[in-house]
Amino acid sequence: MSEKDLFDLSGRVALVTGASRGIGEATARLLARHGAHVIVSSRKAESVEAVADAIRSDGHQAESMACHVGDMNAVDEAFEQIASAHGRLDILVNNAATNPHFGHIAETPMSMVDKTLDVNVKGYFQMSQKAALMMKASGGGAIVNTSSINAERPGPYQGIYSVTKAAVVNMTKAFAKECAAWNVRVNAVLPGLTDTHFASALIQNKQMLEMILPLIPMNRVAQPEEIAPAILFLAADAGSYVTGACLPVDGGFLT
Ligand SMILES: NC(=O)c1ccc[n+]([C@@H]2O[C@H](COP(=O)([O-])OP(=O)(O)OC[C@H]3O[C@@H](n4cnc5c(N)ncnc54)[C@H](OP(=O)(O)O)[C@@H]3O)[C@@H](O)[C@H]2O)c1
Prior knowledge:
Elements: E1 13-17, H1 22-33, E2 37-42, H2 45-57, E3 61-66, H3 72-86, E4 91-94, H4 110-138, E5 141-146, H5 159-179, E6 184-191, H6 200-203, H7 206-212, H8 224-235, E7 246-249
Bound molecules: NADP nicotinamide-adenine-dinucleotide phosphate.
């Protein structure tokens, strides 16, 4: 196998959730540049179509699909569409997530607990089930979950979000073990603080940032384009013997 082939995704169909911006968009663009046909997905049809359109304008392959990953019927429908349009799914990047409550964990409203679990845990779980079965039918595939450094070190006032990100780590390992026999690899990335809309409240708060930066050995936040290559590695043949791995991409924060 030549080195170039290790990252070549030609002929593969990849679904990236939360791909209208941030880490998901950077990942969708990178997978497409490496030859995948990318299904760019998030809740908002217009936003994902804009990303898919930009990918096509760059000469690569993409389509868009609106899907709320916390809505079980919407996820069912998305996989029916993929089955009828492509008959296969080779790569799933479970990346869409929500963090609606910033505040003391003991005061988290149960409605926020439900919302966070629905998207970040049940959504990832259902997507993984559907993808793994589809991959099994076509001989294999790769699932990459976006967890977070909060999985290992809960962020202050981000309690329920951190709980869900830890669940994603164990979900990754459980799926990895049980799906290995189907030639389905399942891995996760644990991004550190990344310059996206999701983290803008923290990054744009000068006082907060001054407190956080000394905790990061590299002394800076990540750009989404620095998380995407780790996802590419885990999705591509370059990662062919890697499964159940949860890879920090965090400038050394967890070290
Ligand atoms: N940024 C960080 O510092 C950081 C650190 C560690 C981990 N992460 C993780 O990285 C992942 C991506 O976050 P990001 O930082 O790239 O955030 P972002 O730029 O805000 O993007 C979030 C994406 O998720 C989509 N989305 C939100 N809720 C959704 C839902 N219910 N169903 C489907 N799509 C949904 C959004 O699009 P729509 O609004 O159109 O749905 C958007 O495309 C998340 O899993 C997050 O937990 C981020």
